[in-house]
Please model this.
Amino acid sequence: MSAPSDLAVASHPPSGAAAAAASSSSGLTFKLHPLVIVNVSDHHTRVKAQAACSGDGTSAAPGQPPRVFGCVIGVQRGRTVEIFNSFELVLDPVSGTLDRAFLEKKQELYKKVFPDFYVLGWYSTGSDVQDADMQIHKALMDVNESPVYLLLNPAINLSQKDLPVTIHESELHVIDGSPQLIFVRANYTIETVEAERISVDHVAHLKPSDGGSAATQLAAHLTGIHSAIKMLNSRVRVIHQYLVSMQKGDMPLDNSLLRQVSSLVRRLPAMESEKFQDDFLMVCYSAKLII
Amino acid sequence: MEATSSASMARQTWELENSIQATSSDPDALDAIYRYDEATQTRAQQEKPWVNDPHHFRRAKISALALLKMVVHARAGGTIEVMGLMQGKCEGDAIIVMDAFALPVEGTETRVNAQADAYEYMVEYSTINKQAGRLENVVGWYHSHPGYGCWLSGIDVSTQMLNQQFTEPFLAVVIDPTRTVSAGKVEIGAFRTYPKDYKPPDDPVSEYQTIPLNKIEDFGVHCKQYYALDITYFKSSLDSHLLDLLWNKYWVNTLSSSPLLGNRDYVAGQIFDLADKLEQAEGQLAHSRFGMLMPSQRKKEPEESPLAKVTRDSSKITAEQVHGLMSQVIKDILFNSVHPSSKASTSATDSSGPVPMIES
Model:
């Protein structure tokens, strides 16, 4: 992959890598579905396995898995961009650009099955945004005026706590007197539907798929809730520790953070009206009728 | 952190108890299944070990990606049956499903060969995919039975028999997205039909399923014509890593899911069905008082009386209700039984107070 990036470096001044650290100001909220993450990961694993098997190490640098490219699709409603699904794309190794005919064909096929989804952007794997990526990004701009770029870092780092997935948008910034497009990072949240959550849970924790007795099923369900509560507890403790150390003076006072914590705390109890209590008891009663 | 190590220990004990084979943690070995070896596949195609043994394939291994795609597609269809194809390969007595894709046809029970319409789509999709590095062939089809269980209906059986005659190896998978959401676990079944004149040995009925009354006849007529395969799932090392990290964001959704609310319609339907079944069982019980002269010696296992079946159905509904109710009650305790005290910093610990069982 050295030839295309040389070309890219020659045509664009080397500002891409540094600017990727800036954060987005477009005000769009991004929601990502876990299916996309699993899709990209599967694509990467497949290509890596095939490359390892065929023993062809000429194109990729030794020790580095080949990069994969694909398109992400989803829905954009107002300021919210929700990424539901993705599919693979073919990169022309000579020119470093995407195969347009392929993209269009695939888009057509997916439109038939999921008529609501539009092309929202593209994805790739790698540890950081590279200069050649801007070319591909620009090429996609005629499909969607402001595509998103999803980068997945396939390196398995066991000490990592955060998902190695970053979403980038492109923004026009004036650098050194000339307007240029650079990548800026955007925040995203993970969004899911109930069915997706259950299957991700199922595969992640390898729950027993057969019927089992009612007791084991109940145990499984409660274990899931228990782990979720444990997470909540550990997060709350982290906040608590932070506040205590702030009180002691170990950490500098951060007023905006204090305001956020105080608003969080004031949200409890979540619902205190009498009507809610009545409704809640009614739900308990009717559920118990069946039990 | 202590939380993560005890969580991993809990998971390991869980896996041990459920005899899930610990696959080797070597990432290369785990990912080896993703390699597609053209030569082995063509050899298997030529040998055709399944021609002689109708029971040749016993296991189905489904990848995490395929499962996720199928469930999401099935759920997106709502109450309409949807279908799609699966791509993969076969290995010994297992059919391995690597990926799945949806077909733009809406299956209804009256269409005999819904796949005829989708051939063009399928051919186009497969050729395009080969370009993109997805080398596997189509190895099966899946469709959804929203709300009425995982089994093959009469039409499904005839479609599958046709497939098994012409496009072997082929697997049929059925997913029930409604039951998945209501029960909190994935409802999926993998089947292969027996050839027309084959008399299967009497295997024990694998797992009892509740089937709504209006479908039970269709189920009963054809249930001996196919057999179920054991389903196991696999994921790559990168998948496992990502899914672990995903949990860091996901626990919010687990805690905030409300199964009682989401499944209202389905539960109401189930209860109606249960009432009908009770009436039927009552009628049968009244008749059998006169007919209980000779115990039937023909079957190896005595068939359950209808009342016993109804009991099982009702306990299944009950279990699901218990799950939903527990989630609601836990949420209530966690978030509602706290009262703001004067100091902002101490009420953070108060919120975890009413749940004394949590030890980290």
